[in-house]
Design a protein that fits this description.
By secondary structure, this protein is α+β, with helices and mostly antiparallel strands. It has eight helices and 13 strands.
Length: 318
């Protein structure tokens, strides 16, 4: 449920009634596999028109997803699209809506025809770098002041999704304190200049299914820009994949993990934003719960959560 959805009003102004039917899901965690939990909210009023619906159905699709890289951890090529736009300020690009995905299918097919696996989405005259396909974008580079820096686009413009994997990477790398970690805009001009100067170390995408995905090449305005992500074996990308995957499958104890709720869920429920840490008592999760493999905890949080309106439990992050 997000700010970008128009929810039917509830009678009496109270929480929407949800049938007390629970489905018990047993899930065995496996290396580099995922459990997708997709809350879906659709209008069901038998009326054809452009308006809010007075009736709606909330259902959750839960399904296991096999390894994102069945043939191994391989880098991808992106087409930097200068024609199509995935999102714009004031729109719904920062929310998990079907409207964000439909318009991307045709451009993605064109990218595939050109030998690219995904699109590097740009925005505006400056060609801000936003998302890589459906993933958040990260770049490890030597900034112009000479410092090593991990950079990812900020959330304020609502051009990108506030991914839980994105926030986990920010939390984890800041805890390492081995290089500067920033959320700021950067353009294709910045990227091309840094590539030509040899200042880019790694470029990768981050998302639910792949965790992290290395990027080795960008097709841009007739140019083939080689990114040296794999030149040294993508050490940062591989380290993040291992550490995040170890947490997901319970190889690393979760007692040090903190609960966060997604930005959309927080706004719907009135809880702190994803930039703020929750107190564990607020999250309604015990120390015993936190030691379980991540997918089990996710389901537990979804069942335990209680908030006004429709807002499922938070996702567990670092």
């Amino acid at each position: 449920m997000s700010k970008g959805c128009l929810a039917p009003s509830t009678r009496g102004g109270g929480p929407m009634s949800v049938p007390s039917t629970w489905i018990l899901v047993t899930w065995m965690s496996h290396w580099q596999s995922s459990l997708y939990i997709r809350p879906t909210y659709i209008g069901t009023e038998p009326t054809l028109g452009v308006t809010t619906s007075n009736e709606a159905l909330l259902f959750v699709v839960v399904g296991p997803v096999g390894p994102y890289f069945p043939t191994g951890f391989r880098p991808v090529t992106l087409l930097a699209d200068t024609v199509h736009v995935r999102a714009h300020p004031g729109g719904c690009g920062g929310y998990k809506l079907g409207a964000n995905y439909g318009p991307t299918v045709y451009p993605a097919k064109k990218a595939n025809d050109l030998g690219a696996q995904q699109i590097l989405w740009l925005y505006g005259e400056d060609r801000l770098v936003t998302e890589a396909g459906t993933m958040n974008t990260f770049m490890l580079w030597e900034a112009e002041d000479g410092r090593l820096e991990l950079v990812t686009p900020p959330l304020e413009s609502h051009l990108i999704l506030p991914g839980v994997t994105r926030q986990s990477i920010l939390d984890l790398t800041r805890r390492w304190n081995e290089f500067r970690v920033v959320e700021k805009n950067f353009t294709m001009g910045h990227l091309v200049k840094a590539l030509r100067a040899g200042r880019v170390r790694e470029l990768f995408g981050a998302g639910t299914a792949c965790v992290v995905c290395p990027i080795e090449r960008i097709l841009y305005e007739g140019q083939r820009l080689d990114v040296p992500t794999m030149k040294a074996g993508a050490p940062l990308t591989n380290r993040l994949l291992k550490e995040l995957s170890d947490i997901q499958v319970g190889e690393v104890a979760l007692h040090s993990a903190m609960c966060r709720c997604s930005t959309a869920a927080c706004r719907a429920s009135g809880r702190p934003s994803s930039a703020d840490r929750w107190d564990r008592s607020e999250a309604m999760v015990s120390e015993k719960d936190l030691r379980q493999p991540l997918p089990s905890v996710l389901l537990l949080l979804a069942i335990k959560a209680r908030s006004p309106g429709i807002a499922l439990g938070p996702a567990l992050s670092l």
